[in-house]
C-alpha cells in the first residue's frame, strides 16, 4: 500500500477520540508514506521516502483537523534512491527532512556482490546522506528550502540523515531560555569511526549537531560519539533534542543489547558532553533498545523493537 498517517484527537481527556487518516493526494504503491511523522501544533509532517527520490508532506489545520491543507516538499537536487523523507522533524516554522540515501557524486554503481550474493550500491560517493531544511514565513501556506546539510567528514554508506531532530527558538517564552535553540541533530548510524592505529570502527555511528543564527545558514558545531563506542553500535539510529540536551539511540551497542546516550551542551557552547548512558534493567540481546528515543525536560523515553 502507499502508506498512511493516522491522527487521533481528544477533547475530553481521552475518554473518547476522533480519527483522521492522512494520505498523499498523489499516492502510489510502496511510497513509504507515514514511515516517519512529526507534529507541532496544527502542523503534521509525513515522510514518503520511497516515492522516487522521496517526498515529505506537510498538513496544516486551523479548525482542529475538520479540514486541512497539503503541501508536498521535495529536495532541490532530488534523485532516485535519495530516500528523502526517511526521517522528518518540525519545530515552529522549520521543517527538517532526512535523505540518508543521497549520493555525493558519480562514483556510485549498482553491482553484484559475490560475497553477499546480492545486488548492492557501491562506490565512494554512495549513501553519504543529506538533510534538507525548509522554512515558512507565511504561516505555513508555503515552505522554501533554505539549507542542505551534509557531514564535514562524509563517507560512503554513512546514512547521514537516517534520523533527525530539531529545536528552535520560535516556541520559547523568553530569549534567556533559548541559548541552545536553533539546533538540528542528525544521526549517521553507519558512520565508520577512526579507531586509531590505522583501523576503523565499522558501523560505530555518530550524530552531528548543526546550529544557525539566522534560520537559514547552518554550520556543523559538533560531532557526537559514544564514550564506549564499538564496532556496529549503530549509534545515531535515533536522535532527540530538548533545549540543551540531546539523546542518541544505539540499538546494537552494549553487546547488542542496545543503549541510549544523553549529551548536554557545555557552558562553552557549542560543545556537547556525554552525561549518561541508559540501559534497561532487563536488557537482552537483539531487543533493539534505542531504536527510538524522545525527550521532554528531565524525562527520556527509549523504545525497542
TrEMBL record:
<keyword id="KW-0325">Glycoprotein</keyword>
<keyword id="KW-0677">Repeat</keyword>
<dbReference type="InterPro" id="IPR013517">
    <property type="entry name" value="FG-GAP"/>
</dbReference>
<protein>
    <recommendedName>
        <fullName>PKD domain-containing protein</fullName>
    </recommendedName>
</protein>
<dbReference type="InterPro" id="IPR028994">
    <property type="entry name" value="Integrin_alpha_N"/>
</dbReference>
<dbReference type="InterPro" id="IPR013519">
    <property type="entry name" value="Int_alpha_beta-p"/>
</dbReference>
<dbReference type="Pfam" id="PF14312">
    <property type="entry name" value="FG-GAP_2"/>
</dbReference>
<dbReference type="InterPro" id="IPR036278">
    <property type="entry name" value="Sialidase_sf"/>
</dbReference>
<keyword id="KW-0732">Signal</keyword>
